[in-house]
TrEMBL record:
Record keywords: Membrane, Transmembrane, Transmembrane helix
Residue stretches spanning the membrane: 5-22, 28-46, 58-78, 90-111
Name the record gives this protein: Membrane protein
Source species, domain of life: Bacteria
PANTHER family referenced in this protein's UniProt entry, alphabetically: SLR0284 PROTEIN (PTHR37309:SF1)
Keyword Transit peptide: no
UniProt cross-references to Pfam families, sorted A to Z: Phage_holin_4_2
Keyword GTP-binding among record annotations: no
Amino acid sequence: MPGLLIRWGIQTLAILAAAYLLEGVEVTGFFSALFAAALLGILNALFRPVLLLLTLPFNILTLGLFTFVINALLLMMVSGVVGGFVVQGFWPAVFGSLIISLVSWLLTTLVSDQGRVEVIALQRRGGRWE
């Protein structure tokens, strides 16, 4: 449970970073970003796998770049539902989803499922890395 809350906070910070860096993405307050992060997480968990499966031929043809379009569409859907979170157009949504994905990925790699910041230290023992 703590890992989920930390990831939710990380997603909120990523949305705030996208709003700070891009002109077409606007957030009026922290709670708007918090609700946008919650809804984006729910949409990513429920609809993103189905959309990826349905658009698999396009993803194969574009070598996976069509995934950015799916992320942008999900971000625009969140923008339509959450008041105080506005994405003005398709390209700001694409760049916003790219920034959100990068910031979330960078910060989530440091957090374990138990919600702790962990560093993996490998040691060589008997020809094996443990």
